[in-house]
Amino acid sequence: MKPRISPRLTVSGRLFLGMLALTVAVTLGSPPSAEATTAATAIIRNTATVKYSNAAGVPQTDVTATSDVKVTLVPATPTLSSPIDQNTVVGTNAVYTYYLTSNANGLDTYTLTSAVASQTGISGSTASTPASISLGASTVAIAIPAGGIAAGGTSVITVPSDDTPGSGAINGIAIGDTIVILGQVYTVANIADNGGATTSTITVNGNGTASGAIPAGTQIGERGSFSLTVTPGTLGGAADGFIDVNVSARDAGSVQPSTPADLTTTTVQAPRLTVTKEVSIDGGATFPGGVPQAAPGATLTYRITVNNGGSSNATSVVITDPMTMFTTYQAGTAKRATGGATTYAAAPTALTDTNGDGDGFDYNLTTTGTATYIVGTVAPGAANAVQLFFQVKIN
Fold first, then answer.
1. Which of 269, 296, 331 is where one domain is finished?
2. Cα–Cα separations (whole angstroms), residue 14 to 4, 23, 188, 388
3. Counts of helices then strands in the chain (DSSP H, E)
């Protein structure tokens, strides 16, 4: 014999099961809540509506009440690029281009700083950046399916409106700006700035790659650029100098969690000239070194070699060689060669004693009794070495 179930328990049980079924249905039929970031200055408007009728049962005009909340700016540490180190020379600035990307939820201003951290082999160098940079930001209001931002053409992204309708910008993002969404970089083609407790749209140009799925609440950050200018000081010698510069960006309100920084090293390349002077007693066929012996009336052939063993051009190079006692300069014997050591006969370029054709060489004009050769620039490397030849006779 089956036990009897109380009618009261039966009704209660049925009521419980009905409520449980309703709860399950509501749970399964409702989308999951998303914890999404909302753009700054967006208006969250909630409106309650009361419907009623009079005593005769005639419906009356609805009564409503609205409450608005404005979303505040939440600063975040921006992303700072790290440009490649550069080489330069004294007198020429090294200019680095930095990219800074906002990770905040709205328009924010970042203070930029630069400081020379250390100098090696050089002194008096300086570094400078602009004082600040302002970057816009927003968030995706309606989820974008995979491929929703097409590889080509333009695509529309719905975002929360800001509190400046008709300004032509949404939370600082304007036409022509560069924005970053989940690591992908886009250019803004158009803005529809509606304002108020609504949504607006940002139209972007495709970047060649169709997007993946982008959830609602995904951050949209503007990427801007600024320059670091490093001005070299004075080299301490013939060796290269090195300038280390720290660059950082910080939220102007100093409330972001941390400050991104980057270190650049600028190498200031230095010229390093060496000069050798050799003498030949066989007409310039050989330059044996040592102290050769020659009788009065003999012809001596000199070879002066200037080589730049440094890493940058030597400029305004001038060779001067006064004639020594007991010798007489032989007119019209000056010649030039470039590169590896060669003989007097093989030197390809004849020089005039009066610099009449602008070859830079003269004898006894710039300075009495002196051979003067205005070389100009000598580039680094043995292939650019300059050789000056001329002959004298022993009195």
1. 269
2. 16, 14, 59, 114
3. 1, 29
Q: What is the largest CA-CA distance in the chain?
A: 150
Whether residue 289 sits in one domain with residue 262: no
Written as six digits, the tokens of 315 are 């400029």
* Short-list 138, 128, 187, CA closest to 162: 138
Task: Find the CATH number of the domain harbouring 373.
Answer: 2.60.40
Q: Is the dihedral of CA 5, 7, 13, 18 positive or negative?
A: positive
Q: Over the range 188-209, which residues count as b (16 or more CB within 10 Å of their CB) and which as e?
A: bbebebebebeebbbebbbeee
Answer whether 191's CB lies under 8 Å from 174's CB.
Answer: yes
* 18 pLDDT above the threshold of 70: no
Cα separation of 44 and 22, whole Å? 30
Check if the beta carbon of residue 228 is closer than 8 Å to that of residue 247. Answer: yes
Q: Check which CATH number belongs to the domain holding 150 and give it.
A: 2.60.40.2310
Kindly report the pTM of this predicted structure. 0.76
Q: What are phi and psi of 136, to 5 degrees?
A: -85, 165
Q: Write down the residue that tokens 């799925």 correspond to.
A: 213
Q: Residue 23 domain-assigned?
A: no
Give how far Cα 129 sits from Cα of 93, 117, 225, Å: 13, 15, 11
Contact predicate 330/323, CB 8 Å = no
What phi, psi does 15 have (nearest 5°)? Answer: -65, -45
User: Mind listing the pLDDT tens digit for each residue in 211-270?
Assistant: 999 999 999 999 999 999 999 999 998 899 999 999 999 988 876 667 899 999 999 999
Pairing of strands 184-192, 234-235: unpaired
Q: Domain of 342?
A: 273-394
Grouping H, G, I as helix, E, B as strand and the rest as coil, residue 199 is: strand
How is residue 50 written in tokens?
Answer: 């009361």
Among the residue ranges 13-17, 243-247, 347-351, the one predicted with the least confidence is: 13-17
Say if residues 214 and 141 touch (Cβ distance below 8 Å). no
Mark whether 265 and 284 lie in a shared domain. no
- Asked whether 171 and 196 are in contact (CB, 8 A), the reply is no
Task: Establish how many alpha carbons lie within 13 A of residue 128's alpha carbon, considering only the half-sphere containing its beta carbon.
Answer: 7
Name beta bridge partners: 127: 230
Residues 224 and 83 reside in one and the same domain? yes
